[in-house]
Amino acid sequence: MSYLYDVFVSYRRHAEWTPWTRDHVRVLLDAYLTQELPEKPRIFVDEQIEPSADWPHRLGDCLARSRVLLPIFSGDYFNSDWCLSELDLMHIRLGRFPESQLIFPVLGHDGELIPDEIARITPADLRAFRNTDLQRHTPRYELFSEAIRRHAPDLAAAIDSAPAFDSAWVDECRVRFDQVYGWHCGRCAAPALISITRKPRPAISVPRVTP
Predict the structure, then answer these.
(1) Which of 62, 92, 150, 166 is most enclosed, with most CB atoms within 10 A?
(2) CA 118/CA 92 separation, integer angstroms
(3) Within 10 Å of residue 74's Cβ, how many Cβ atoms?
(4) How far apart, in whole angstroms, are the C-alpha atoms of residue 61 and residue 168?
(5) Is 208 a residue whose pLDDT tops 80?
(6) What are the distances in angstroms from CA 74 to CA 105, 125, 146, 160, 177?
(7) How many angstroms separate the CA atoms of 91 and 130, rounded?
């Protein structure tokens, strides 16, 4: 058993944002990383999991066998136990191999909920291009493409820095996602994050309308 993917894209699924991630981010990453790596990059987006697969175990396998995590930090990313577990598991691995660059964060929102342990890693800021109606062959898309191109060498360097694969990561990831699945099915307690601290979402103050 060895690495299967170079990049694992971690994002909060949504009817509008999934196509943005799959059809734009992944496609441009593939195009520009192809210029930086000796072989065609292998990029995982969770829509690649087969409908008949054991979802928690397949997700665990894919994360465990990925060199770098690319989390897209959206406002709702931090409401997802799946996303936070992906981030936490890779952060645990990073703690074992601090010389590596195993997390390559992308800022898609304001970032105020990013855990302090992750906030110290400088993100790629793509907020200006995270738009559900982003259109190809426009000046804005050209700027988006250029932003991905600028970050591709650093992402390639992060991929190259990955440590030797450890098959124990597969069981570690499978167990965590079994816990998340059990929590959502009401069979067990919520999994505890052990390397990052979930920030509370700030209360929204709604102004009172005086008639």
Answers:
(1) 62
(2) 11
(3) 24
(4) 11
(5) no
(6) 11, 12, 21, 27, 21
(7) 25
Does residue 51 carry a pLDDT above 70?
Answer: no
Q: Residue 9's beta-bridge partner residues?
A: 70
pLDDT in tens, 60-95: 999 999 999 999 999 899 999 999 999 999 999 999
- Looking at residue 83, the DSSP 8-state letter turns out to be H
Our measurement of the distance from residue 61's CA atom to the centroid of its chain's CA atoms, rounded to an integer in Å, reads 15
Homologous superfamily assigned to 5-184? Toll/interleukin-1 receptor homology (TIR) domain (3.40.50.10140)
pLDDT at residue 111 in the model: 81
Q: Which positions ≥6 away from 56 have C-beta within 8 Å?
A: 174, 177, 178, 180, 181
Q: Which residues contact 194 (CB under 8 A, 6 or more apart)?
A: 88, 92
Please write the tens of the pLDDT for every residue from 152-175.
999 999 999 999 999 999 999 999
Strand ranges inside 38-187, DSSP E: 43-44, 66-73, 106-107, 124-125
* Residue closest to 86 by CA, chosen among 5, 188, 189: 5
List C-alpha distances in Å: 71 to 13, 92, 121, 132, 209.
12, 15, 12, 18, 39
Number of residues assigned to the chain: 211
> Is the Cβ–Cβ distance between 102 and 204 less than 8 Å?
no
Residue found by looking up tokens 């600028």 in the block: 150
